[in-house]
């Protein structure tokens, strides 16, 4: 699936029952860079210059935050979002010009980054009471939209290990896997979740890239 910088899929801003310890996995091939900012647990550095592949859902209440992931040709940044609060808790600069597998593992409100199945960076622990997985794919208006290719977004309801990530990064899932909360398989510009995850089913056609 190619995102041109205007499209996004809205599932729901945050998943209330997926918090503090969870895992995002996805394959990306960005086509534009994103703004590199400093790691911090405070501030609003994510308001501009970002390429939100996972939009940072607004948790509304000040002591709760939704997680967002910005990815560009120059690296990956993990943000959290609530009222007057959009800091980067993990910043990792790395060239991303070919298809790359990225995993963001949250363990007790602390983000960890894995690239192609290998651990790369540990971020800062959130100061919020709870941190939630977000269900916004492709961008967060008006703060930034992802530009590039993406496929196979997986959201697990637990902290995956490096071994699990490495062994499963190439697998096409059935929806029966233990701990799998959401699975968006992008194919021919159609977003599909396995039919057996009927409560999670999404079918969204996005504009084709020419």
Structure description:
There is one protein chain. With 210 residues, the chain is mainly β. It contains 1 helix and 17 strands. The chain has one helix at 162-168, and strands at residues 2-4, 9-19, 22-30, 52-55, 64-72, 75-81, 88-93, 100-107, 110-115, 118-122, 130-137, 139-140, 144-145, 147-156, 180-187, 190-192, 203-205. The strands form 3 sheets. Strands 1, 3, 8, 9, 10, 14, 15, 16 and 17 form a 9-stranded antiparallel β-sheet that branches. Strands 2, 4, 5, 6, 7 and 11 form a 6-stranded mixed β-sheet that branches. The chain is globular.
Spans of at least 5 consecutive residues whose pLDDT stays below 50 are 190-210
Rounded radius of gyration (Å): 15 Å
Structural class: mainly beta
- Binned, the helix content reads under 10%
Mean pLDDT reading: 88
What is the tally of beta strands?
17
Strand proportion, as a percent range, falls in: over 45%
Helix count from the secondary structure assignment: 1
Termini separation comes to: 12 Å
Major β-sheet profile: 9 strands, antiparallel
Please describe the structure with a list of short key phrases separated by commas or semicolons:
single chain; 210 residues; mainly beta; nine-stranded antiparallel beta sheet; six-stranded mixed beta sheet; 1 helix; globular; disordered C terminus
Brief account:
The chain is mainly β.
Write the layout of secondary structure elements.
Elements lengths: L1 E3 L4 E11 L2 E9 L21 E4 L8 E9 L2 E7 L6 E6 L6 E8 L2 E6 L2 E5 L7 E8 L1 E2 L3 E2 L1 E10 L5 H7 L11 E8 L2 E3 L10 E3 L5
Parallel strand pairs: 5-11
Antiparallel strand pairs: 1-14, 2-11, 3-8, 3-14, 4-5, 4-11, 5-6, 6-7, 8-9, 9-10, 12-13, 14-15, 15-16, 16-17
